[in-house]
Every structure is written in C-alpha cells, then in structure tokens.
C-alpha cells in the first residue's frame, strides 16, 4: 500500500496533532499546574449586577445609581450607606479575587454566618454566596458550583458590611 503526497500530508498533520496533545498533557502533569490553589474571581468577569440582597437589606440598581431598602417591614437598616458606598460595595464584589480552596474545609455547612444573593444581567438564576467560619478562617461558598474560596477578616468585612463580625469572633 503506497501513500500519495496528499496521504503523507494527512499522516504528518495527524501525527503532529497527536504529539501536541500528549506533550501538552504531559507538561501539565509533570509541572503539577492543576493541583495548586489559585486566585479566582468571585463574580463572573464583566458581570452586570442588578441586585445584591443580604439577609436584612436589598441593594438595587436604579438607572446608574444604587438604593437600599430593608427587607423586613418597619426594620431599620443596620448599615446606613451613601450611594457612593453602595457603588463601592458592588464594585468590590465585582473585582474581588479570592484564593480557591481544594482540600476539605472544616466548617458546619448547615450554619452559614451570612448570605449574599446576586441577580446578574443575562443570568436566569441568582448567584448565592454563603459566608462560613471554620478553623480560624472565613470561607465563601458559591452555592451553584459548590466552589469554596478563602478570605480573611478584613475582606469579609468589606464584602459583608452589615454583618457583625464581633459575634462570630467570640464563637
């Protein structure tokens, strides 16, 4: 069986593709690139936040500005914020980069400290983030993908300004 010029070109092309495939896989396994935790964006890139809801209040976009309303009737807002502070809070969530956690983390999944729910433009389901504390560290669980991100106290305070962290520190 003899191959013509076209046949040999196809053999060379497919052998090069197979070689690239195997070398690429070997490269990742050899350097161990996938096992290391890395910084991950909390919200999807270029996300457009319509609403941010905490347990006690709702922050919503009204045109180009933001407003906050209590979720329980006749309840005062715990965190009184200016429009600029609301804008900064949403911006902080959009730009936050946290360390992904690969190993099993010690916290009680049935008792989150606080919850943040985002409604994003173009998304049919809300993005739900649960704040936990375990082993002296705070963790953020993204409910839909079960992704766990580690954060320190100052970052947690910036992401959840209406939560009283002094109560969780005593536990």
Automatic annotation (TrEMBL):
Q: State the UniProt keywords alphabetically.
A: Membrane, Transmembrane, Transmembrane helix
Top-level division of the source organism's lineage: Bacteria
Spans traversing the lipid bilayer: 7-26
Q: What is this protein called?
A: Orphan protein
Q: Which organism is it from?
A: Pseudoalteromonas carrageenovora IAM 12662
Taxonomic lineage = Bacteria, Pseudomonadati, Pseudomonadota, Gammaproteobacteria, Alteromonadales
């Amino acid at each position: 069986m003899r191959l013509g010029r076209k046949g040999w070109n196809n053999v060379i092309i497919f052998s090069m593709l197979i070689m690239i495939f195997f070398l690429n896989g070997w490269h990742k396994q050899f350097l161990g690139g996938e096992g290391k935790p890395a910084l991950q964006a909390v919200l999807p890139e270029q996300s457009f936040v319509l609403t941010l809801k905490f347990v006690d209040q709702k922050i919503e976009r009204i045109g180009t500005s933001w407003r906050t309303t209590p979720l329980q009737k006749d309840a005062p807002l715990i965190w009184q914020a200016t429009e600029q502070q609301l804008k900064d809070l949403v911006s902080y969530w959009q730009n936050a980069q946290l360390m992904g956690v690969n190993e099993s983390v010690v916290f009680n999944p049935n008792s989150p400290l606080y919850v943040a729910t985002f409604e994003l433009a173009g998304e049919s389901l809300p993005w739900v983030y649960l704040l936990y504390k375990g082993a002296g560290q705070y963790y953020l669980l993204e409910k839909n993908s079960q992704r766990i991100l580690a954060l320190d106290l100052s970052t947690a305070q910036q992401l959840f300004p209406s939560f009283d962290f002094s109560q969780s520190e005593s536990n």
